[in-house]
Amino acid sequence: MNATALPDLSPTHAESADGPGPADGSGPSVDRRRRLDVPLLASSAFLALVVLLALIGPLLVGDPGEQNLLQRLSPPGTDGHLLGTDQLGRDVLARLVVGSRISVLVGVTAALLSGVIGSMIGIMAGYMGGWTDRLLMRLTDVQLAFPTLLLALAVIGFVGPSLATVIVVLGITGWVSYARVLRSEVLSLRTREFVEAAQVMGVPAHRIMTRHMLPNVTGPLATILTLQVGTVILAEAALSFLGLGIPATIATWGSMLADGQLYMGTAWWLAVFPGTALLLTVLSINIAGDAVRDRFDPRTYTS
After folding, report:
1. Judging by beta carbons within 10 Å of its beta carbon (0-12, 13-18, 19+), is residue 44 exposed, middle or buried?
2. Contact call for residues 269 and 75 (beta carbons, < 8 A)
3. Mean of the per-residue pLDDT values for the chain?
């Protein structure tokens, strides 16, 4: 007598969370993950290139401020100038590489500064509650009432443009999103058992906020921080485009766009190359931010 064959219930044959799928595990959820991997890998590679150029690029290219009026407005592909030259004969590639250093430095530093300020305010407001919460949230509402770019323009116009000023101004005007999101997360965490146990044991409030609250909000914090970098890079480019950001003696993507707009009909590369670099960098950062969000919130894969 032949024994009855038992069904194979191994993970490769069992139904997935999205329903039955083929034996190779390529169900809807797996297909969605594979589709997301392609832009993520491309954006990660581009961001790695931008960071690498920011770190060592200025050592590989020539002086971005060197002028040669005999070669002004040379098109891309000119001998010794891969991306052409500008109206003063300066190498566009060299200026583009130096501009990447400014964008990365301002974006990361200002986003970290905003994250520190916003995290402190959000966690404190959510955990302390009462008048502390009301006071800090009213401060947040006041900050929201001022357009960030307009406030930055006013402060920089009063203090004067400089790299440090741009970083500080963009850092102290971008903390609102951190504070509001982390406050809502902490409001749900402060009633959890591990927090109540720490309170019963007499653990000080500042220790609970730093040792128990902060590690449990790293997911939203990392997501906002990643996306904030792209926002800050755009804000710095806008300020430099208006002539109120980084001093004009330093090459930035925003100032290159401002110079190139006057020559769009005769020298398109002056605006196209920095504009494309800015677009691809911010787009890659946004894609990376989506990946960070998906990493800390797996529910985004379900439908």
Report:
1. middle
2. yes
3. 81
